[in-house]
Amino acid sequence: MSFTLAIVGRPNVGKSTLFNRLVGRKLALVDDQPGVTRDLREGQARLGPLKFTVIDSAGLEEATDDSLQGRMRRLTERAVEQADVCLFVIDARQGVTATDEVFADILRKKNAHVIVAANKAEGRAGEGGYLEAFSLGLGEPIRLSAEHGEGMEDLLSALLPIV
Ligand code: GDP
Ligand code: MG
């Protein structure tokens, strides 16, 4: 069965890095600087036996007159509506932030299928943030390192019962 996975979360948590790893091509731009990617971009992903469409949500980095909160809500809602499953990414090194809580609320209200991923979890620096991710109340989080390709089996295990 084919399905669509949307990667959502605040800027700089590693969404595009994960998108690129899943798609295997540099379709989404990754940068230390905010303002590099915009809106929703789509690619075809492979993970173990699964083939699916993945959406990278960006565009929150753009400075506009519009409030960040409003754009976050609209973009996330749009991604959720196009997706069967949402991968909600937080930065394990920073832990759960107030902005992450806003995303969690949106996802809860939308009643979306959510997998919480604590990214940047390579090494020990992410352990506290990973544990904090349980408090989002969106199920058991997984540890990922998009940059190092760690945790992809756990992502597969989390997807298999849903799709
Ligand atoms: P996005 O704004 O959520 O799309 O985040 P990006 O994919 O553009 O990544 C933001 C920054 O985090 C970049 O400097 C990435 O190299 C870095 N990054 C992404 N994934 C990881 C990871 O697993 N570990 C570490 N340490 N850094 C990462
Ligand atoms: Mg990005």
From TrEMBL:
Binding locations of GTP 1: 9-16, 56-60, 119-122
Domain EngA-type G: 3-163
Oligomeric and partner information: Associates with the 50S ribosomal subunit.
Function: GTPase that plays an essential role in the late steps of ribosome biogenesis.
Family from the record: Belongs to the TRAFAC class TrmE-Era-EngA-EngB-Septin-like GTPase superfamily. EngA (Der) GTPase family.
Record protein name field: GTPase Der
Organism from which the protein derives: Rubellimicrobium aerolatum
Parent-protein residues present: 1 to 163 of 491
